[in-house]
Amino acid sequence: MKIITLIALLVIVVLFSLGCISSPENKTEKVTTLRIGYQPTTHHVAEMIAQEMGWWQKDLLPFGITDVKEFGYPSGGSELEAMKAGDIDMAYICTGPFIRPASRGLDAKFVVAVNTNGSTLVLRPDLSYEGPQSLRGLQIGALPTGTNQDTLLKVWLEKNGVNISEVKMTAMGPGDAVSAMLAGKLDGVFLPEPAGAMIEFAKKGKSWVYSGEMKPNHACCAIVVSGKLIREEPELVEQIIRTHMNATDYANAHPMQAAEIYSNRTGQDLEMIKYSIRTWDGKWMSDPHLLVNDTLEYAKAQYAMNYTQKMMGQSDLFDNSLYDKVTIVQKET
Questions:
Q1: Residues 119-214, CATH architecture
Q2: In this structure, what are the phi and psi dihedrals at residue 218, rounded to the nearest 5 degrees?
Q3: How many Å is the maximal CA-CA distance in the chain?
Q4: Does domain 29-117+218-332 have CATH number 3.40.190.10?
Q5: How far apart are CA 134 and CA 149, in angstroms?
Q6: Phi then psi for 74, rounded to 5 degrees?
Q7: pLDDT digits over 155-196, tens only?
Q8: Which of 36, 47, 117, 139 has the fewest CB atoms lying closer than 10 Å?
């Protein structure tokens, strides 16, 4: 009897080693709920379009997703905190804010692009802009340290001979920055749209410099997906990419309908949103390869400013393989 038991145990050990049997703790449950993070900016309108059109639900159902939950966040920092805590699976976010958490071990990668450009420098109506030098001594509200806006503005000032210590940059969330501008508590802001249009419509500021003038076609937002989802559900991530691409195509083909969807979702004034989309310098797009070089420049700048303790490379931040697979299949069909 002991010999039979010993043989049975040996068989089990062999089966484990061959992978024929997996331990309960190594089993991964099939994902049935997809949790998406986004922000109230027109940069992320593709997410809203996909939800409004029912594309997330319809497209992801064949992959076992029975529920799609959306979570709105005021900034990329709070989205990344949620991802670190395991509260969301993917997020629409600017590439800059991801660099520092990734350098500290956040398990996630960018898989598809969202947009380029799209932020605006706005000053009080009584101030006149005469080049970067005219910002000396002004209090400018911008998104927190490490964001695209923070990094872009600081690099642009330095390139134009203005030491960042000469500008009173105040790190704020977009909502707080707009409120402060409307209350006359700031000299200016550098924020993603539709913040600039919102301030102009309230006659509390004038747009002077678009971010694409600071750095043409610069990297802005992308979709970051948890490493766990990429590793365990690659086909699901591929469909997320396809659905996002379709929503992006819709936004580019029907910008005013996209404005209506955004307005309905956020409660923001429709005419203001239409004005923002007509006048912004942003472009909705999907190819993540076009964001890599600029994002690596952000990483280099953040390392130089001691935001990070290590230089981050492309493989640390991007996994473009699934996008490439999706687009190759599309070309073949």
A1: 3-Layer(aba) Sandwich (3.40)
A2: -70, 155
A3: 94
A4: yes
A5: 19
A6: -75, -25
A7: 999 999 999 999 999 999 889 999 999 999 999 999 999 999
A8: 139
